[in-house]
Amino acid sequence: MDNKTSTRVGGPEDPRGGLEAVVALRRTLEALEAAQVENAFVAGWSWAKIAEVLGVSKQAVHKKHARRIKGRYPGEPPKRKGK
Amino acid sequence: MMFARFNDRSRTCVEAAFDEARMLGHDSLGDEDLLLGILRADEGIAAEALSSLGVTLEGAREESEEMLSGALSSIGISLEEVRREAGDAFEMRIPDNRRIPFSAWAKKALVEARKEMRRMGDNYLGTEHILLGILGNADGTAVRLLAGMGVSPEALEERLFELRGRAAG
To answer: pTM of this prediction?
Structure first.
């Protein structure tokens, strides 16, 4: 709290702030990945194409996101656009 | 036997804490989530002590979110902008199929809670013991969250024992 006023929060002289920023970033990254994969799916992208751009395997993307996203759009096939 | 002697309210507290952690996008259950769990379980003297000092469930959730966005802005990232760019699909919530572990501080708080129970000569582990366990972690996230809301561990402990004395008659 009190170190928020210092000029280098999250800098080398503030390990606590720096590590907390890592945690916050990791959590935000997870949420951002979930959102962007969902956005791509809704835009009609295939899992293969999503995986390609993310630079990971199709299996990895499918395992991590498919159930959540398909559950959210039941029976609603994604638009085939923007391929 | 981590949950031996837990009464109904403290079991509810831990379940609610997992819910809160998930909702806030915490990839582990932190000691601050246990605090939110206490507020959700309500009706105990721990929740009463917290609310009498102005700590509400809503307020504590907001403070937790502010701590996250504050940490991000310390490295030049605006959560608001990330949210805006990603659109409606962006939410911090942890997906249901992902399990989240207890954080080291949350574990420590529950171990301390058991010690408090023994120290106080109680034969059940209630939310008041969990709260004391949390407050024992001066470095923990929960104590920082409370400090952000203007509440010190000392003031909270004092109120807790006051309420406990009153309940005992």
So the answer is: 0.89
